[in-house]
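Lay summary. Proteins are chains of building blocks that fold into shapes, and those shapes determine what they do. In this project we predict the shape from the chain. Here is one chain we studied, written as its sequence of building blocks.
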Amino acid sequence: MRKLLASVCLCLLLGTGAYAKQIPQPVQDFINKDFPQTNFRFDGAIILPDNTMYLPVFPAKTNDNTELAIKTSYPTNSVMSQKPDMIILDNNFVLLKVINVNGKKTVINLDETPEELQSGLLPQDILLPKGLVIPTSLEGIIGNIDVTVAEDTGLRINNTRIKGKNSTVPVEPLNGKSFYISSGANKNIQVINSNAQQPEYALEQSYVINDLKEFNNEFLLVTYFDFKSMNIISLMDEKVIKQVNFDSVPEQVLIDKDNKLAYITSGSNSSVYIFSLDSMTLKKQLKINGKCEKFTLSEDGSKLFYVDRNTNNIWVVDFDKNYKLINIGSFPNVSKIAYANGKIYVTSRTKNRIAIVDYKTLEFKNELEVCEKPVDLYAKGDDLFILGAQENIIEVLNTKDDVLTDKLFLNTNAFATNITPIANSNLIMITNALPGLYSVVDTDIKEVVKTSPLAVPVREIVVTDTVKTIK
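And here is the predicted shape, written in a compact code that computers can read:
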């Protein structure tokens, strides 16, 4: 065993000064008193729970007030709960509401512009609403921000080829959701309403997608083959809101939603990058062993498992032990790793077997024969769901006794590839490398409860709520 090499701290990607500052905590506290679910987006945008948007204007001079009050507002004597068009706080911080005037998005245009507004500046990383009109009197607050015109469609490519029957009735937890799919058939992200079979439109991409993940129903994190950057796409704007650059090609993305972290892997330089989903900045680079792939994050976010593709050695990075790197052993042609009930489960795609290792003692416990071509694993409670691609079946392993208890036939007549949990439910969806159908499995009763049509193959899929636009 070897201990992990020292973590390498990365420089923040954002600049310094008012151009990249997050909203000061006193300002956040002031807004949260009336709107506790406000989204203070990493680029500086302030979005209230009903999607009302405020643009923050950082002052040239400020003070350190922790208890803020309104110095000036428009309409006069308005309070925050009334969502006025403009607020100037007594630390000189200005909030400009995005309003709709004659069908166009804009901000307040006063005959006499307050000094606090004239001398302030918008965050230079902010993504302004598409088609926003800035009054001439306020053009000085823009700086170098790109202001998109109303005709700018962002990444969207509309689909005009839908013919024949397109509607479908999904299982209830998927009703009204959106599917973002990397099909492998082309570069673009296909966008499908869960109540339809075919893409409504696509998000144009310049490179072939490697991995695709979502965060908070707001953003897609996308990595590409042979491209040393990860794009962050705002679903509300359908634009790349930020491009994160790496010194090697980023590959797999794992999301720890509870801790608001992402782990970005790069096998080519044996690294895992720790990425803050709050500020959308790289925090650390962890140097690990081997050409790493097949990463799995434990449910509590404390352990990161992977295999070295060159040696078939399996490793774990234990975050609770100061990023200690532990060698678990070797297993041929690893297709997936899972962790449940204190044990590590590893499948071999070609040997059709699953190995079981006790994590605490590193003792080899057992090896079982499973379905042909096991390609994915999903741990839920005491059950481990094993997806077999050859016969399109799911086998269920009880992880208390390590006994196979159930076998579910998917009947999709395709090559199954992925298990995707459906948020806030006990359901998982099984997608395929060929177009046609997807299956939904109830993990409690261990039954296939729905098979629905899907007109595109799925390499990667994420499921989100329907995204609302800025008011």
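What the prediction tells us: The CA atoms of residues 426 and 443 lie 6 Å apart.
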